[in-house]
Structure formats: structure tokens, C-alpha cells
Amino acid sequence: MTVHTIPGGGGVNLHVEETGRAEGKSIVFIHGFSQCGRAWTRQMQSDLARDFRLITMDIRGHGGSDKPRDVYGDAELWAHDVNAVIEHLGLQQPLLVGWSYGGVIVSDYLRLFGDAAIAGTQWVGAVSRLGEPLVAPGFLGGDFLALMPGFFTDAAVESVATLQRFLRLCVHDEPAADDLYFFLGYNVIVPPHVRQGLFSRQVDNDAVIAAMRKPASLVYGEADQIVSPRMCTHMEQLVPHATVATYPRVGHMPFWEAPERFNRELREFRRQV
């Protein structure tokens, strides 16, 4: 595993890790709200590394990346974060894989830079909207929305309890204790001001998504309690050329809950694009 510190938009330092075959096709994994690059462990430590160059980035405010205040509302900053990783590592036509909030970040990149420099996109339980454009159509689960006050509190006990409920919602089956505390460990290091900054945005990227011409893959868990299956249906309408894979008895983390299938299908998709 090689670790990089890469200056992103506005000079925020991003923690980036890579592994795999240096000359292989590259895949950039972009995690979601309150997570970090370690969420992709079952990909980074899989046989995908034999064939592909695998990169995870801790998005600004998360994991090992800088966590300043007031740098989360500008779409251009998020777009420059992704572009900085691509340019710094010299990636040629990478595949961008966005999970959950990572879909908004992929959208931010596409809005500013277009899709000329990438091979395609994969959207994993992903959203492309924020604020009322996301909440009003029922694209987020009610149990998840009910947790919002706890995400933003500075009271440690309430914050940890909220994160535990959130993480339980992320998966269909009861997680093993080791998995739950692994998830919790990298969730608790995200400051409340970062979580609040992420959800302070009002975003509707439908036009950006509909303009994509590169290959796209939509991956959603049928039992997702964070992002409603309505979001997948909506994305299908925006990107009629996309391939669609739905996972029965899987929640918000197909790559963790069904890694063998997820990795196999990701391998097939990346080989084609």
C-alpha cells in the first residue's frame, strides 16, 4: 500500500492510498458521508489488485484528510479534489466509483471537468442531489433522516449513539461486532462541523448526470434503508445507457455485504471500459 498526501481544492490536504498493478487500469473509490477510504477494504485487499491500480481517497473532512471549517459548500472545491488525485497520480482514464454521498462528488467533478478524462462511472447506493431536491421526492430513508440532529451534535455520547444507529441502518444483516467497531472507528473521527457542512448544500445534478456519455454502472441494494430504491429508478431514467445491478437482501453497502459479487462485476465492467 502506498500512501499519498495530495493538495486538493483550496489547498486542503487529502489522504490517498493506492495498491495493485501500477500499469493496470485505474479505479478511484470515493466513499460517502462520515466514512473513509477504509470502507473499501474488501476491494483494496482483494484479487482486483492483481489486475488494476486501486486508489481510495479520504474526502475532505474525513479519515486522514484535513478537517477545516467552512470548506464543504463549494462544488468546485469538491471537483478539484477529484481532479487533483487524477493529475497527481497521473491516472489515465480512471473509473470513478462513488458510494452514497460520493455520487454528489462525482457529479461535482463532471459538472466542472466533464467526462473526457475518465473512462466511466459507477454509482453505488449513490445520490446526485442534496437538500430539498433529495429529500422532497423521498430519495432518503425516514429512519436515516431522523438521525440528523445527532449527526451534528457536539455531545459525545449522543453522537456515538447516533453513529451506531446509522451504521446498523447501512447493512441488511446484523453486522459482526468486529465490523461494527471497525466502521465506528472511522466514523467517530469525522467532526460534527464536517457532517453539517456536507448536508448544508442544495444540489440538483440531474442535468449533469443526463449529459454523461461515458459508460456508467448503477449498483443498489434492494434493502437499502439510507438511499431509497427510488434513487436507482431515477438514475436509470437519467442514464438510459447505464448497466443496472440490484442486490437482494443487501443494504447500503453492496461492496461490503456482497464483496464477491461486487468485485466480480466491477472487474467485468472495468475490463470493458
Task: Give me a quick take on this structure.
With 273 residues, the protein is of the alpha/beta class. The chain contains 13 helices and 10 strands. It has one domain: Alpha/Beta hydrolase fold, catalytic domain (Rossmann fold, 3-Layer(aba) Sandwich).
Helix/strand order? EEEHEHEHEEHHHHHHEHEHEHH
Can you tell me the overall shape?
A: globular
- Give the rounded overall mean pLDDT: 97
User: If classified by CATH, what would the architecture be?
Assistant: 3-Layer(aba) Sandwich
Structural class: alpha/beta
CATH domain class: Alpha Beta
Q: Beta-sheet strand percentage? A: 15-25%
Helix segment count?
13
What's the CATH topology label? Rossmann fold
Radius of gyration: 17 Å
Biggest sheet: strand arrangement: 1-2-4-3-5-6-9-10
The amount of helix comes to 25-40%
Largest sheet: number of strands, sense, barrel closure: 8 strands, mixed
Q: How far apart are the termini?
A: 25 Å
CATH superfamily: Alpha/Beta hydrolase fold, catalytic domain
Q: List low-confidence stretches.
A: none
Count up the domains: 1
